[in-house]
Amino acid sequence: MNTPSFPAIHEIDGLTWSLADLAVRTSAEGPWRSGAFAALAHSGLLAAFIPAERGGTAAAEAGLVAALVEVAERCLTTALALTQWAAAVRIIAAGPTDVQKELLPPLARGDTLTTVGISQLTTSRRHLGRPALAATRDGEAWRLDGICPWVTGADSTQTIVTGAATDDGGQMFFIVPTDAPGLSIDPPLQMLGLTGSRTSVVRFAGVRPSHALPPPASGGVRTGGLSTTALAVGSTRASVGVIAREAQARVGLGPVAADFTAEIAAVESRLMTAAASGIEPADRDRLRADSNGLVVRAAQAALTATKGAGYVTGHPVERLVRESLFFLVWSCPQAVTDAFLCDLTAG
């Protein structure tokens, strides 16, 4: 099949190579400090996620997914930050018209930055039996109390789009300035990989949001969407590229590189078909599970191909191996987790 191309995203080739040049610095400092996020804005990629009537260029879903693959291949830290920005933008774009008009144009230009903190509505801390973040009425306003356990770039953005449980058992979204009274941001977590994402716990003590948005659509907040698979495909591409380069000097690696190239092409084809035409939830979860397994195996193969050099801290393959494990814990629906564990235990 022909893979749909992304339309009118300016300077994408130059952008991805710029991100690759900045990747080492980004992995340590984050894309907001390294200049990678500014490069996204300058290229026009941020605007592609935003409706034309709100200052954007409104690229099609297939184009956005393809762009995420390209970015992730060059720098997974930047790609992760972009997905969190895009998730926040999608929530804002579904909100009241006046909120859209106020917030989306500067986001499209990169003049302001936002991120999302909604894991407490989906996978994080649901087992505790009480909401991690609660919203209560305070006169005509709202009050937020609790925590967001995972917020990427919380200390590097102006706003956080978050979700909280309400008194009536429902959920609502809120936009909160990061300098709001009562809001505190913990130091970024030191993680196995992607520490440059500057992911932090954010705490709310009587915080008043600047905007309240409608509750999530029917069915609640969805996890395991196509963007997570797109990033896994991009990261796999990076590992397969390493194997292919090693194969130029070692003939025995040629078939390995060819097999992985064919496998990633098949998964990417399924991804792009889903982005262009839609996909059923069960098939989406299977695609995610397949991409999770592939990204881990490809990184391990790249490590094997580079031998001891790739095992040294700071080597690009060492980073790829650590980053591949992120997909086992990032927004994984239970069906995806179960499928991966089943694959691990299959004899």
Explain this structure to me?
The structure is a single chain. The protein is of the alpha+beta class and 347 residues long. The protein has three domains: 98 residues, Acyl-CoA dehydrogenase/oxidase, N-terminal domain (Butyryl-Coa Dehydrogenase, subunit A, domain 1); 100 residues, Butyryl-CoA Dehydrogenase, subunit A, domain 2 (Beta Barrel); 120 residues, Butyryl-CoA Dehydrogenase, subunit A, domain 3. It is 50% helix and 15% strand. The chain has twelve helices and eight strands. Strands 1, 2, 3, 4, 5, 6, 7 and 8 form an eight-stranded mixed sheet that branches. β2 and β3 form a beta hairpin. α1 crosses α5, α8 runs parallel beside α10 and α9 packs antiparallel against α10. The protein is globular, with a radius of gyration of 20 Å. The two termini are 34 Å apart. The relative contact order is 0.11. The N terminus is likely disordered.
